[in-house]
Design a protein that fits this description.
Blueprint lengths: L2 H4 L2 H23 L20 E4 L2 E3 L6 E4 L3 H9 L6 E5 L5 E5 L10 E3 L3 E6 L13 E4 L6 E4 L4 E2 L5 E2 L3
Pfam families: EGF, PAN_1
Family: Belongs to the EGF domain peptide family.
Protein name: EGF-like domain-containing protein
Length: 168
């Protein structure tokens, strides 16, 4: 009987996923020394996954870069951002097409600085509150990892997304 006959398929998939995660972690550890400058920490705790959203042909124009790097693809810039404790968004592109500008802020904290620019694409980490999940004028509060939220409901409403009505 071979190893593959004994081990169920789901277990093999889990082992392969763990191998992939270890290799990915080693890859990220290898690229972190290339950071060239720093600004105060703006993201805590560190995250291991991010859902980046792209705004094509736009550049978030602001001072105080967390890092200014050269990478060959936007994916590489995303990896650098993910493992840079100050990064919450980045600009990728430029005249050479490989500039990676790691930012310690995003379009929500600096919306007036999002400019149309055909040389760059702007990427930001999607937050749970971006889709406005709280109904009936509830206030969305993003929790620590940006993927969870809590709704602060107005007086007459209740529930995770403030859709339930309180009966008095």
């Amino acid at each position: 009987m071979t190893f593959h006959q004994v081990m169920p398929m789901t277990c093999r998939k889990k082992i392969n996923m763990i191998k992939f995660q270890v290799i990915l972690s080693l890859l990220f550890a290898a690229v972190t020394p290339f950071v060239t400058s720093q600004v105060p920490v703006s993201r805590d705790p560190p995250i291991a996954y991010a859902d980046f959203h792209k705004i094509a042909d736009h550049f978030l124009n602001a001072t105080g870069l967390a890092a200014d790097l050269s990478v060959t693809k936007a994916l590489g810039c995303g990896f650098r951002c993910l493992f840079h404790h100050q990064c919450v968004s980045f600009n990728y592109g430029g005249s050479g097409g490989n500039n990676c500008k790691i930012l310690g802020f995003d379009r929500f904290s600096s919306s007036s600085s999002l400019l149309h620019d055909g040389k760059y694409d702007y990427y930001y980490i999607k937050r749970a509150c971006d889709d406005k999940p709280c109904a009936n004028n509830g206030k969305c509060i993003t929790n620590d990892d940006s993927s969870n939220f809590t709704c602060g409901c107005t007086r007459l409403f209740t529930g995770k997304t403030c859709k339930g009505m309180l009966i008095m």
